[in-house]
Amino acid sequence: MADGVLFVHNNFPAQFRDLAHTLLARGVTCRAISERSARGIPEVRTASYALPRGTTQGIYSLAVRAEADLLRGASALRAGRMLAAEGFEPQVIVAHPGWGETVFLDELYPDARQVHFGEFFYHGRGADIGFDLEFKAPDEEAILLGKAKNAVLALSYTDADAIVCPTQFQASLLPADFQPKVRVFHEGVDVEAIRPGPPEPFPLPDGRTIAPGAPVITHINNNLEPLRGLHIFLRALPHVLREVPDAQVLIIGEEGPRPYGGQPPEGGGWKAACLARVGEPLDMSRVHFLGRVPHARMLAALRLSTAHVYYTYPFVLSWSLVEAMASGCYVIGSDTGPLHDAIEDGVNGRLLPFFDVPALSEALIAACRDPAATAAMREAARVTAVERFDSRKGREGWLDLLREQGLKIP
Q: Which tens digit of pLDDT belongs to each residue from 108-150?
């Protein structure tokens, strides 16, 4: 008899952490399929897999992603058989289909309902590809590669009974045929734990400390790269640092092995590539690259922030933006699609043209010189976070949807 939920995510628990813990607390049976490198949740029996091989040498370039996704799909199917051999048959499969793991699961569990997480549907034009032509204008190959990423993803969505998208922008990227399946609600953040609070002295790696009250500009970029506007942000800083001599800049993030936007055309990492393109001296004694930091330290930086810069290509909206809003930050964002689901210009933050470096500089200078002027927008950002991005609402959205799929949840 079918019972419980099967989570499928190559890096489980990832976006499903809160939902999995919620279901476990209510006595719902949970199992998972993931790659062996995933951290998992101790209470969730996980069948892990490893890819049997890499990409076929000489394979047609547009088929590389599809082959990799199909390899993962077949591997996930084998992992699922281990769970089936133990007598587990899910009522509902909750999955991130972006890496192919779900594509064959209907062969093993034909009667299970499937709820997919619709994080991003790729486009050769009109989204992240071709938005920023500075580093490399997309040729036909790049455009076709972008679209080809959807081959197995689209096949997986045909098996979905519902597709959960965190924002309207992300939902808008899905083809019309899938739109009737779409539900829009954000998984949210813990707005009770992440909230405005008194700033505290912030120790720097070099032994210095930033005292509360100093002008502090924050920027969080999980993978330091242009897709999140690092090059624009750095170019804005020389003018800001000249005009605001006591300003400090905190940049959180690291150069991950697989940035969303690919590697710099000249090789090396994006941090060096973006710094090399600043075009004028940058006072590095006041620009602090902190790398990846514990979550508590990130929140401490946000509570200290005078202005938080969040820029992005038309791509996935970051959790860090929502956490900045929940912290009551004054957000200066890019006027791009993802931000329209969170920021209204002049009401709960600012939206500026992505490529307008002087506009960003002037906005930062104004914020540092008169932080009291942004108080109303800070308060409104917090209100927006509570109204739209509260994890309790996201949790209820998931539970209601799973009940619709027939899952009995106490």
A: 999 999 999 999 999 999 999 999 999 888 889 999 999 999 9
How far, in Å, CA of 368 to CA of 374, rounded? 10
- Over residues 186-207, the pLDDT tens digits come to 999 999 999 999 999 999 999 9
Reported as a single tens digit per residue, the pLDDT across 21-44 is 999 999 999 999 999 999 999 999
Distance CA 399, CA 370 (A): 44
Element holding 332 (H helix, E strand)? strand 331-334
Which residues face 34 on adjacent strands?
Answer: 48
CATH architecture designation of domain 202-388: 3-Layer(aba) Sandwich (3.40)
In a 10 Å sphere around its CB, with 0-12 CB exposed, 13-18 middle and 19+ buried, how is residue 74 labelled? middle
Class of domain 5-188+391-404: alpha beta
Measured at the CA of 52, the angle between CA 50 and CA 56, to 5 degrees, comes to 130
Tokens at 347, concatenated: 């009401």
Long-range contacts of 280-287 (CB under 8 A, 24+ apart): 280/238, 281/238, 282/234, 282/237, 282/238, 282/241, 283/238, 283/241, 286/241, 286/247, 286/248, 286/249, 287/237, 287/241, 287/249, 287/251
250: left (phi over 0), alpha (psi -120 to 50) or beta: beta
- For the question of whether the overall pTM of this predicted structure is more than 0.85, the answer is yes
